[in-house]
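Figure S4 source data
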Amino acid sequence: MRGATGTAMTSHPLPQAARGDWLTLDGVWEVELPAGTTPRLIRVPGRLMIDASGWSQLEDTDLVDVHDHGAELTRHRGVRDDLPLWFGELGGLSMGSGEFAHRHVDDLAAGYRRIVEQVPMEAAGFVWTQLTDVAGEQNGLPTDDRRFKCDPAAIRAANEAFLGR
């Protein structure tokens, strides 16, 4: 963790999660509840909780979870002063002909670096979408059969620069 966020998070569950716990996160596109009911989360002591990843985030959460495939990620700074900022989804770059991509690029490593450089320093972390290509989304770093689309050393260098800020 870096800067003020790291200091503020020393008693937060996120450092435990960062040490190797699996986090299960998914977006919720639409929630329909019977009239008069309220969404309720079941909290597990000592575990990080995100109420609804990204698009329809509610209030009962341990992180501000943002989904943003744009190029101005710093606009999410200060959304909430009481919770860490987390990018549960960013990226969405495609070099191929996949129909589902947020942006097409010629140089995937350079596109990756440009997006990662936009992640605010106080962010607790991010998830790249997609890690690998899947059936309908051709926006992974490697193809669905795990062939790299760019030099993995360039991705590593971008990650190391992010961690070293």
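Figure S5 source data
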Amino acid sequence: MDIGFFYKNLLIDFTYMKHMQVLAFSKKRCGKILPASLAFVLHYGLRFIIIISVFFQEVAAQRLTFSEHIGPIIFKNCTPCHSPEHGTPFSYLTYEDVKSKANVIRKVIETGYMPPWIADTSYTHFFNERVLGLKEKQQIISWIESGMPKGKGKSDYHSFSKKNSVDEEPDIILRMKNPFFIKGNNKESFPMIKIPYEFKTDSEYLDVRCIEFVPGNRKLLHHVNFEVLPALPTQDIFKEPYWTNYTPDDSAQKTYNMLDSLDLGEEKAIYYGGWLPGLSKQVYGDDFGIRLPKRGIMLINVMHISASPIDDYDDSYFKIYLKKSKVQRIAHWDVLGSGGTISPIVPPLIIPADSVKTFDTRFQLAFDISVMFINPHMHLLGKSFLAFAVLPSSDTIPLIRIKNWNFNWQEFYQINPMLTLPKGTWIIAQGEFDNTSNNPFNPFNPPRECTAYGKMRTVDEMLGFGLMFFKYKPGDEIKKVLVEE
């Protein structure tokens, strides 16, 4: 702040004011023109207050430190993706990490490019929301401009993390028998991989608070679906083969035969999960969680691997974190539209070339539920997404709105406390698709007709809306299921 410049202007204005009078208030309110001396006091008194305010703001900015102010903002909104396990170009785990990328951080938060969050915050809010407010942006910029003081206290991510975070070492790690070989033939592949396990415990199951899928080959993995299958005592879960691979060109019968060769048994899956780029972990608190049978199969039923021109490998694995208390309530998973069995897409998902079309899928609840998280899904032609619930009373409950769909930033949107929906509620999801040359993500030029019909190739389309929920119990309206990391 140039104080000398201020006094120079003050002197010039004072000389001018000696020969002029200033209208401080309108004649209507005051009835006369105030003397120059009083107008001077009012005018420059206000200017002095403003300058003093700016001065103290600058002093406050100088007091901003990484350990007290900036670290918590970065660790909450940036580090969940910018860490070694998530394959980003650089990490934000320490003060030194953040300081070295200060100019980059400033640029991406000023432009709004980071942190990525495509859900419309004017429509709904979520527990795992990554959005910087104006105050947080100003704090980061002021901290950078003031020389980035470190401060005293915790200045690294692991010290900052809460005790109930799952960033500590997992209790169990489940790995594939061998890394999966990816043939460099420029074709997408969809391996199904079984990881059999057997724990030495007297209990029939383990109480689990988090199952985390850790992708190995992030540059080629598109998405992953997995499930937990219990095993019968007589079932030979360690019998080979451990994986099978199919392409979208394989017939349904061939795909079924390959799946049958894994000898997965007859037991129904007791848990479903998945991974998408940018996905946050789901960590259960209180009496919520997963009951993992002590003997079973962790089945990757869909591992969508993008086409590669060269041979490569994937060595993805699972981290399992145990609870200290017993699991009393178990989550359920259903999908509307693509990838599900409970509701069709209307009209059928066929998008003609050079067209922009909207489709929807809807389902009516047969019992009361408490929703924990939702997951919209489309591919490259996706333009916008909207989901809402219509109660039996005809009231509408907003679920999610994405005005500008981005295939690269998909998320399991967490609702905490849970959203309760009564029996008879209609859940409706609508997707808008742009199959024109105006869509910069269109995989074909000129555009071609695009269909779904059960295929999962990136160049095909999907319209899915997944929900993780519990059967309703009184008090769920204020019940928090997920633990804040």
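Confidence is low (pLDDT under 50) at residues 1-34. The chain has four domains: 3-63, 66-160, 172-330, 334-478.
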